[in-house]
Amino acid sequence: MRLLVCGGRHFEDAEMVHHELTALHWRKPISVVVHGSIAGVGIIAEAWARRHGIAVVRYPPNWEFYGKKAEGLRSDFMLTDSRPDFVVAFPGGRHTADLVQRAINVGLAVLAIPPNTAGACPVAKHPPQRGQPTTASL
Question: Where is the YspA cpYpsA-related SLOG domain positioned along the sequence (predicted)?
C-alpha cells in the first residue's frame, strides 16, 4: 500500500505515530510512505519507514517560488503525483484539514487519528478501501 502521512509540524507524539503505522502495516503491508517533508509527523513517519525497510517519498513545499500558496499547491501535487492508496492524518492544523478534504474529494480513504487515542480508532483495525472515504475527528 502507498500510504500518504500528514499531520502538524508541531505534533511530536512519536509513540502514537509508530503505533498507528505499525497497526496499518500489519493489516495491509505498506510499500511506500509519502509525506510533505516538514518537521513533526512527516519526519517521525519517515524514521518509522526507514526502520522497517519501507521506501520514503518526500514532497517539500517550494516556499521561495510559491510563497504562502506553497503548502496547498504541494498538497495537490502530492495527492496526484504520489498516487496514494490510503491517507492517514495525525493531529494538525488547517493545512492538515485541507489535505484531508482534498483527499476525500478525489475519492481516497482517509483515517484521521484524534489526539491521544493511539489504538482507539476502530478504522485503524479495518482501513477502508480506496473510494470509500472515512474520517474521524481531527
Answer: 1-64
